[in-house]
């Protein structure tokens, strides 16, 4: 085998190996609690963010907004039960503070629940002006929690 052929085969095999690696760690624990909570948070964002886009781009549609709020309420409890004591391992994006400051973490969780309840109530008015401040409060609860409890 020529040196050039060996180099080419080595390069191709390296590329093939690297193509299979995306750098992400898989959650292999029973029930996949980290992956489950990450997916639940993504579902919340997929519901919550379109509301923000509507408000920021001045494209408020009461029916669509109300439907999104209802979906948010249905999804908002999804991640929380998956923060067990033994779930601080890769691929988590949670900081150790989740477990070290459990009371504060729960307070921020409850603030999110309250803010989304207020958003749901405001959405019943079917007016952009009525939902802007409650949406911001709900958004702020996410930000407040991420500051302490999510790795960046």
Walkthrough of the structure:
This protein is an all-alpha fold. It has one domain: Four Helix Bundle (Hemerythrin (Met), subunit A), CATH 1.20.120. It has six helices and no strands. Helix 2 (about 35-55) packs antiparallel against helix 3, helix 3 (about 60-75) runs antiparallel to helix 5 and helix 5 (about 100-125) packs antiparallel against helix 6. The protein is globular and about 65 Å long. The termini are far apart.
Summarize the structure.
With 152 residues, this protein is an all-alpha fold. Helices cover 68% and strands 0% of the residues.
CATH topology name = Four Helix Bundle (Hemerythrin (Met), subunit A)
Rg (CA only): 21 Å
CATH class: Mainly Alpha
Count structural domains: 1
Percent of residues in beta strands: under 5%
**Low-confidence parts:** 4-21
How large is the count of helical segments? Answer: 6
Structural class: mainly alpha
Helix content: 55-70%
Helix-strand topology string: HHHHHH
Give the overall shape: globular
Strands, helices and their partners?
Elements: H1 3-19, H2 33-56, H3 62-75, H4 97-100, H5 102-123, H6 128-149
